[in-house]
Amino acid sequence: MSALAQRLNRPIVAIVAVTAIAAFPRFTHLSSPPGFVFDEVYYPKAGCILIGWSDDVCHVDSDDEKYWREHKWDVGSWVHPPLGKWEIGLGIKAFGMNEFGWRFTSALAGTLVVTMTAGMAQLLFRRPLWTFLAGLLIALEHLNVVMSRTALLDVHLEFWVVVGFLCVLLDRRWIDRRSPPANDLDPAYGGPATDPPLVGDEQPVPPTERAVTYSPVWRPWRFASGAAFGASASVKWSGAMALFAAAAICFIWEISRRHRGETTWRGAFGRALLREGFGLALAFVVTPIAVYMLVWVPWFHHFGWSWHDWWDNQAATWRYHSSGLQWTAIDPKTGSATPTHPYYSRPWTWILMLRPVSFYVVDDGPNIAQVLGMGSPALFWGNLLALAYLPFAWRRLRDWRAGFLLLAFGLSYAPWFAVSRPTFFFYVLPLTPIMALCVTYLLIQLADARIVVRDRVTGAIATHPDTGEPAVSTYRLYLPFVIAYVVAVVLLFVWAWPVLTAGKITDTHWRAIVWFTSWI
Fold this sequence. Notes:
The chain is mainly alpha-helical and 520 residues long.
């Protein structure tokens, strides 16, 4: 490898490069389409109100909006906590109450999501190539681009969720560096994230537990993670789902670290709970609540520090989300139950990408301009294969990275199935960085897979009769498929670009991009 190649083959180069790639589609012509798109009729107005501008400037026109401004210091978006609206308001404060101003912080948050996803990939895979690829999957992911160019709350929620999981991985590295070297050999907890062994190779024998050299309470990255997840819940309450997933993962890791030698799983559970329970509660219960309350301080100041009014506001928000929205309503003409919104979709349909959301459309006959909140088929459908492989890798290869990805996705996704209120496809956005990491993990396995000849009797790797070396082929059988997949990701993004940014195209071109009637 040349000196130039060595300088470029660094994590920081990969992260900076993929961040620059992500910024281009997010900031290019950010003011297009003009006007308020989809639910931008709520959040930019709310952000404008929070920074103290007038009704005229904030486009607070209707009596309903003026009522909410007086009684909720918001508009119809009062049913969500204020942090995301404050972030949108900062862009308005900097650039004015215009399309670029109210979308600026969304584009910035979406770009930083790519940066943080690449950072997670580096901690997991420790190779700049895969760091870059994981970031690229999000940089060119259709739904992420659409949401980064729209002043909605979800990309701000996604940003804090990714920061939270990044801090979880940083906490793992922090504890590994302060634990005895023998811990790095424990396959249950996992040491340095090197390339996983070939299928069937022997694993290291777990060493006996030694004393650790850290405080079980003061774990700075764990507290940072709790703060980030508190911020995510301060954008939307659904951020608490990722908080639950992170806390569960951290506790499972602590149990696994203690399950060594003659320690049973029951004993490891008790020891982890006794030693780590207080610190986990401080990081993932007390800290998020403190952040959540801190976000509401301006609201308290505005309404005279009334705890009663604040609690009534929280209760009204709960009632709205639990019973204020309905999936269907009775059509008075036909007497049948009909959807109350054409783009409602059940959570199980999200990863299949069955019902994307149209944010904006202008159809003048021969031409059409649309913003379609669809996902990347390469990522969403590729993730289905990755999710099928991860349990095998976690169990058979005893690879902690597979377990982390499976739990981070599953525990963040599963609570949505208990949500009774109507949901939309774009609620899946915070899960897409985990999807990118899952797919990257599968691609690594495919790219590194080689043909291995084994002894029929013992199952051990055979010896090459001519060289005396292990009979392992140097040919990477599936590498061409990996390359083809990456090319497909890029081509699909370029192909779909017009319907992600309201580019005017012919109806024929539009039909070639919008493949299914359920996507319309």
